[in-house]
Design a protein that fits this description.
Blueprint: E1 2-3, H1 13-20, E2 29-35, H2 36-47, H3 56-67, E3 70-80, H4 87-102, E4 106-111, E5 113-121, E6 126-134, H5 138-151, E7 157-161, H6 168-180, E8 186-192, E9 207-212
Parallel strand pairs: 2-3, 2-7, 3-4, 7-8, 8-9
Antiparallel strand pairs: 1-9, 5-6
Helix pairs in contact: 5-6
Length: 214
C-alpha cells in the first residue's frame, strides 16, 4: 500500500480551531479503530479484492509511521455469520479474529442478521430476492469506544478505518471532550481511494488519509 498526503481541504474550519488551539503533544499516541466490513468493501471497490486478506495492524502501523505518530492500540470490529448461516465464513472469521487477538489486537464481533432483500433487475421488468447479512451494533460499538477512550485520555489521535457517516456524531462528541478537558485531539478517517472507488469521502469533520496500491 502507498499513502497519499492527508487531505487538508477535507477538514472543517471549526474542527481545526477546536483541535489546534490546545497544546499539541510532541509524541502522539494513536488508537486505530477498524470497521472490518466497511474497509473490506472499500478495498473491494477500489482494488478489486474479493477476499478480506488485509493485515490491519500493518496497515495501522504504516499510517502512523508516515505521519510520525506512535501506535498504541489497534481495535477491530466486524459482523460474523453463524455456523448455520454460513459455515465457511464463520470458520474464516473465527480463525482470523483469534489470530488478531494473539497479535494483541482488540477484537469485537457480533453475529450477522440475515434478511431477504428484493432488488429490481433487467430494466425493472423483474425482481430478484436474496438473503443478505446485515451488521447490527458494530457502528454503535465503534462510536462508544471512540468516545470512551477519548474520555479516559487513551489517545491523542483516533485513526478510523471507516467511511460510515454514522460515526460523525462520535466525532462531534470527541470535539466536545477535547474542549472540556483542554486537550489536543486529532481524528482521521483512513480509506482506500482509486478511480474505481464508489465512495470517495471520509468521515465528516476529520482529516482524510488516503491510501492506494503500489
Amino acid at each position: 500500500m502507498k499513502l497519499l498526503s492527508p487531505c487538508s481541504t477535507c477538514r472543517k474550519a471549526s474542527c481545526r480551531v477546536i483541535l489546534n488551539t490546545m497544546k499539541e503533544p510532541q509524541e502522539k499516541r494513536v488508537v486505530a479503530f477498524v470497521d472490518g466490513q466497511n474497509l473490506y468493501y472499500a478495498a473491494k471497490a477500489s482494488f478489486g479484492y474479493t477476499y478480506p486478506n488485509y493485515d490491519v495492524r500493518a496497515l495501522a502501523k504504516m499510517v502512523c509511521q508516515t505521519q510520525g505518530w506512535k501506535l498504541a492500540q489497534t481495535r477491530f470490529y466486524t459482523g460474523v455469520p453463524s455456523m448455520i448461516d454460513n459455515a465457511f465464513w464463520n470458520e474464516f472469521w473465527t480463525r482470523k479474529l483469534a489470530a488478531m487477538g494473539r497479535m494483541g489486537i482488540q477484537v469485537f464481533s457480533r453475529h450477522l442478521r440475515y434478511r431477504n432483500r428484493t432488488i429490481t433487475v433487467h430494466g425493472g421488468n423483474s425482481t430478484l430476492t436474496s438473503l443478505v447479512g446485515e451488521e447490527k451494533g458494530i457502528d454503535v460499538r465503534i462510536a462508544l469506544d471512540m468516545v470512551g477512550l477519548a474520555l479516559h485520555n487513551a489517545y491523542d489521535v483516533a485513526v478510523v478505518f471507516s467511511q460510515d457517516q454514522d460515526l460523525s456524531e462520535a466525532v462531534d462528541e470527541i470535539r466536545h471532550i477535547a474542549r472540556s478537558q483542554n486537550r489536543w485531539i486529532k481524528i482521521a478517517s483512513a480509506f482506500p481511494l482509486e478511480n474505481t472507488s464508489t465512495n470517495k469521502r471520509g468521515l465528516n469533520k476529520t482529516d482524510w488519509i488516503l491510501f492506494i496500491k503500489k
